[in-house]
Amino acid sequence: MLLRRTVTLLAGLFVLFVLIAPSDLDKFTPEAFLRVPLEGLVGVLVLVLLPPRFRKPAAVVAGVALGLFTVVKIMDIGFDMVLYRPFDLVLDWPLLAPAVDFVDVTFGRFASMLAVVAAVALVGVIVLLASVSVLRLSSVAASRRPVAIRAVALVAVACVSLAVPGIPVYSDAAATSLVDHARRVQAGLHDQEVFAAEASVDAYRGHPGLLSSLQGKDVVISFVESYGKSALDLPEVSAKLADGNSRLKAAGYTARSAFLTSPTAGGGSWMAQATLLSGLWIDNQQRYRNLVASDRLTLPRAFREASWRSVGVVPGITQAWPEVDFFHYDKVYSAQDLGYTGPRFGYATTPDQFTLESFQRNERSKAAGPLMAAIPMVSSHAPWSPTPDSVSWDKLGDGSIYRTMPASDDPPESIFGRDPAAVRADYGHSISYSLESVVSYLERYGDENLVFVFLGDHQPAQMVTGEGASRDVPITIVAKDPAVLSKIEAWKWDDGIRPGGTAPVSKMSDFRDQFLSTFSPPKV
């Protein structure tokens, strides 16, 4: 008897927890669980009123549905922690493949296979547990049908009579979540048509004289991993920007800065980079796949068609990268092509300073004509610890010097097991290192023919930004030739390498056309 009552109690607690638990881990407070789930009351009433021959099948179906709902809620919590949004049942499944690839590259094939098996097993256990729980509760309620009906009625009346404005006593979180997911499913199913319509407009394809105002200039577009607007509030980053601004001015540079709204947050760097380079809003993997299968004019391709040598320096690429054909680079340098023999610092395959030195050594010092490069830098990728030290450019060599520094290959998710204050400090230090790499590169290798654009790809995880942060990232253009900066006066960007609180904000997808229209002849 005691065992049966214990099983019934545990089943009830499991169902109660699933129905009222928030989809945002930050909202897991005691108050959030002191509510009555209306969906539970309705479910009990339906099951006890069903004829006996339909009750068990209905309970199984309800249990399986509750189990799947639990899995989706877990995905919602995970996506909210990292990407600031719930899981999309239509568009987010392809994102699981890069996660498996990451485990494969970092820990090996066996670990990735084990992770997949464990995930599938966990889903099965959750669905089984939910089904057994609902079956047990329906059986107990049906055996005491009059009592169950009176209890549901009593609790419903109490919810209404005890309701106080601002202090909810009941919860419809599960129903609200289902409605929200249904709306996202509907939007996701139509997103391919919407994207096709957006992609059909390619205003600068075949435009004569593209980028003629930049003839003779080397143009670098560098993405600083996780460099979001929130970084500007960190003392170490703020000090580094002030110091870098003074040093660049002393070296004869002028800079302008603003903000771009990224299509993603917390991760998905490839989507942000594709958004800026293509001029299309890429906020899910379906759009990304459709983009790279298209003939869209990207900035690297526009430069290449205008007689620049176009290269991609992508230290984050450690496997085959079919997208190279879409971006139309003349040459791509992946991690293994950079000549780095040092250790990994967290996720980063190559320290940012070494990445820039490798680009200078392999391309810019040898270029016979104008050069365009897209360079995603990865030292500021989570877990943000440890960060390499800046060293003398003359001593970089093959990267052996980094073997004297503390290193690790901790995965990005390791930040969730550490003190948030320490994580934020490590994040600020890594961003400062990346900014120092850019500033010191410009001091050492910059000249009148260099135009350097650096920007963040997305904000870091909410552990750093806090809840409710925007998706804005800083962007800066640096050049010595005053003619270059005079071209963008109409943009009204702020002076210096740090955008102020009132600096212009535009969508990241608008940058391609803004850049092409500014440095190309007017359209006729």
From TrEMBL:
Which key words are in the record? Membrane, Transmembrane, Transmembrane helix
The UniProt transmembrane annotation reads: 32-50, 57-75, 110-135, 147-170
User: InterPro entries given for it?
Assistant: Alkaline_phosphatase_core_sf
Classify the source by domain of life.
Bacteria
This protein's name: Sulfatase
Q: Which organism is it from?
A: Lentzea aerocolonigenes
